[in-house]
UniProtKB/TrEMBL annotation:
This is DUF317 domain-containing protein. Residues 220-288 are annotated as: Disordered. Residues 261-274 have a biased composition (Low complexity). It comes from Streptomyces labedae. Residues 52-109, 155-222 form the DUF317 domain. Residues 242-251 have a biased composition (Pro residues). Residues 224-237 have a biased composition (Basic and acidic residues).
């Protein structure tokens, strides 16, 4: 189970496996890694939010009022005035934690410069091999499949999440504007009607893709609110109550302090009984 402080957990149940969670409908966690870099944030008249890197070469759109269900769209550019070099999309049901994993990795890549955030995947490369994106899933028992001649797939043990990789030449514009992209990650039993999905175009850096698949493969459950059944796949997800943490084990100092607090207080000096000449049992030599 996660080790979050109970007071900071936004939910009353844990959902597992985490690919059966949905969006939290709160954008801040996904935006914050890039906002923390000082990226420009502005909104349009509909309430959509846009983040732009200082050099204009990476842009994020959070589009609750967009034309389709692509809630998060992130593009990077070799030339700020040219076409995108790569594009990633998460739809409006994708778990926010997976988006945050991507934007966190993107923020780190941007700090390192264009050689990192524009690093095209390269087979056989130590740090750019596209297999990096698949490795975290294999390590968690996901299984390879070949649904058709052009597609490699790897599926979760429960059969309810799949990462697809399409081979061959793809139209860059179609990759950016539709779900027919090089990488297609989705949950459910059918890619035509997924619980949620994410796509990434051909030249998306492998390190950024790996950040997402690591988040998906993580066995830790995700917190959600039981009554908000739109935040997880109710019919398939396992839920367990989030209990407050147990009190910490007392230290020896805590034990001594507790014992001292239970010790009877000393009587005031004025109330301590003393021998007197009227005592029933006088001291030897004393007059009764």
């Amino acid at each position: 189970m996660p080790h979050d402080d109970h007071d900071t957990i936004d939910g009353d149940v844990y959902v597992s496996p985490r690919h059966l969670a949905h969006s939290t409908a709160v954008s801040d966690p996904g935006l914050d890694p890039l906002r923390d870099l000082g990226w420009d944030l502005h909104h349009d008249h509909l309430g959509n939010a846009y983040l732009t890197a200082p050099d204009g070469k990476v842009r994020l759109g959070y589009l609750p009022e967009g034309d389709d269900d692509g809630l998060w769209r992130i593009n990077a550019y070799k030339d700020a005035f040219g076409p995108p070099a790569w594009g990633v999309c998460f739809n409006d049901s994708a778990p926010t934690e997976f988006v945050t994993a991507f934007t966190t990795a993107l923020a780190e890549a941007y700090r390192q410069g264009p050689d990192r955030y524009l690093a095209r995947p390269l087979a056989g490369s130590t740090d750019r091999d596209p297999f990096q994106a698949v490795d975290p899933l294999i390590n968690r028992g996901w299984c390879f499949d070949r649904p058709d001649l052009r597609t490699f797939a790897i599926t979760a043990p429960d059969g309810l999440a799949t990462l697809e990789y399409t081979t061959g030449d793809l139209d860059p514009a179609i990759e950016l504007e539709t779900r027919d992209a090089r990488w297609h990650l989705w949950a459910g039993t059918s890619s035509a009607r997924p619980y949620w999905y994410a796509t990434a175009s051909t030249d998306t850096p492998a390190a950024l893709l790996r950040a997402v698949t690591e988040a998906v493969a993580d066995p830790a459950p995700l917190p959600r609110w039981r009554d908000d059944t739109s935040s997880y796949v109710k019919d398939h997800a396992q839920t367990s109550p989030i209990h407050p943490p147990s009190p910490p084990t007392p230290t020896p100092l805590d034990v001594r302090r507790a014992a001292a607090s239970r010790r009877p207080a000393a009587l005031p000096a004025a109330s301590v009984p003393r021998w007197s000449t009227t005592s029933r049992h006088a001291l030897p030599g004393q007059r009764r």
